[in-house]
From TrEMBL:
Keywords: Membrane, Transmembrane, Transmembrane helix. The chain crosses the membrane at residues 21-47, 53-73, 129-146, 166-192. It comes from Arthrobacter zhaoxinii. This is Small multidrug efflux protein. It comes from the Bacteria.
Amino acid sequence: MNPIQELIISFQDLAAQVPEIIRPFIVMLAGAVPFIETEGASMIGILGGLHPIVAGIAAAVGNFLSVVFVVLFTSRARTAVTNHNRGRVAATRSAERVPASLGYQGSAAFEETAPAKPVSKGRQRFMKWLVRFGVPGASILGPLAIPTQFTSVILIASGTSRGWVLLWQGVAIVIWTTVATVSFWAALTFVVGV
């Protein structure tokens, strides 16, 4: 037996100590974590002794639920910010009408510039895909650059509707979960021999 087989069997023995009904919930929680997501969570489930279909479904459900939470939170935050900015624009316009001779600087008091943050390479790559392929392409290709939760935030912040983001994030999650689960199962079965 090679070291990889021994490691996998040791992990399965450890996972066997957890009740079988709890294992899919652990995989769901792992799927909700950015950077682990469905790909890593389905691998954890398969290594833990779950059937590949159960592991894939649990990982996808956990990831999608976290994306739904992020989308709902982000869309509410975006709505609050845009409504606040509309009020700020209205106040700025009325401030411009006040003469500066009255001791008021007009709209200069409202102009605050935030320091520019450097944009990460993953976000730059994602923004190129968003411009080039639209929401469907960016959602499907996004997990190659950044986690689906971050992709969802960027899409909502850019003004995309919640339903459209959830639809395409769901499609992307299903595609990547299927690819990762089948690939990992095939590698374990045919290459490692576990």
